[in-house]
Design brief:
Layout (H helix, E strand, L loop, with lengths): L1 H7 L28 E2 L12 E2 L31 H42 L2 E2 L19 E4 L2 E9 L2 E9 L6 H13 L9 E8 L4 H4 L5 H5 L1 H4 L13 E5 L3 H7 L7 E3 L8 E5 L2 H7 L2 H10 L3 E7 L17 E7 L13 H17 L4 H47 L3 H26 L1
Antiparallel strand pairs: 1-2, 3-5, 4-5, 5-6, 6-7, 7-12, 8-10, 8-11, 9-10, 11-12
Amino acid sequence: MADFFKSLLGGQKPIAPEPGSDDDFADFASAPSPSPIYNPPSDSSDAPATASFPEHDTLPTGAAKIPYTKWYRVWERTSPRDFYAEAVIIPFIFVLALVHIWGRRKNKRKASVWIAAHAPTLEREFASVGFDKRKQLADYGGDFSGLLKEKSAQEYVTYATGRQNAAFVDLKIKLFKRYNPITLVVETALSFLFETIRPPKEVMEATIYAFDGKEKDLVPVRSKAELDTKDSRFKGLPNSGFDACVWAVVHKEQMKGLRDERYDVSLTATKDHKNLPQWASVMSESAEVTETLLTKDLVEALEKAGDAFEYLIVTDQPVDKPVKLNEATPRKRIIVSLRLPSSIHASAYQPTMPIFEYFLKLPDTLVATAHFRGEVTRKIRATREEETKKLKKADEGEKAEERRLEAEKKKKEIRDTRLKGLSAEEQRKFLEREREKGQKKQEKKMSRKA
């Protein structure tokens, strides 16, 4: 205010601050602007164009001065020590890629050798082998790898159909994860530490689905003419049915794991048999079933297979324990599991060839001999009915719970609709009565417990 009156009376004018001045940066006002000192290039065209910096330029502690060069002169501002990480990572990735390619090829070659050794046997027993029904084995020209389909790098599958008493057979070849050695080593190590984890192994597992008198339902119809003559086509066929049962011959090393993994085998009792080798055992629902199905040819085939044999199962029950009633529908099947030899030559499969051939012909044996006495059949049927009753009881409990929830939902909707049509005072009285009823019910429950 004093300055204002002084200016009116002609006094000294206030000194205006200089534009652009800032007291906070006064310490830097005297610092010169950094500018590189240009060094002209020499006569040689290969000499790098560089610029040096003044002595007062500061750099981070321990940092080396990097010369200024053109963008494409990478070799002038780098050294081999800048690429130590890449020198380790790139060869590691290259080795992994080579191992992956080698592992896939090794697995494919092993699967091809297996199908080459077993394709003639499959062709003798089935009218069509492989997924291409238009081709015969002669069309493959000795290379039977076309019969296989690669499901994954460690699993190959094939298929055969066209046989009396057998609808079709699925064959699955499971191999080591050679393409991923790290995973293979970890799985092997975990199998030693934990009993619940089974070690990796190479096996062939085949499953035959029996017709069981249902040819009319399972055989596909390709034209209207076949549909019209469907009844007459299957009228003269012999009955392909046999009595339901669960029966297995198992290597003793696989017994515990098999009982834990498969629901159907858990219904059986385990017993040794005098005709079997010491390393094998029988899992059966009845002794009569064992005496009927354990033939001399089967025992001889087992002795030839030796440790390559894992199990042979005849079953009509599911692998996993049924939770709902429709999952317990019986479906008759025959399953065999054989270990694959380490050798990749076809001659290495000669010991397991007899058991494989017996497996393919087993549907005929079952149709001819698997018709047991009424007492045995009733016992087997009683086991299934008991399991079915448990499922029905659980299913009825679920349906009763659903009905209860539905009734409560409808009751709540009626209550809400009624409550909306009441006034505020009537709503208060209604809620008060509900609360009193709830308290009385709670008191009754407490008195009953006391």
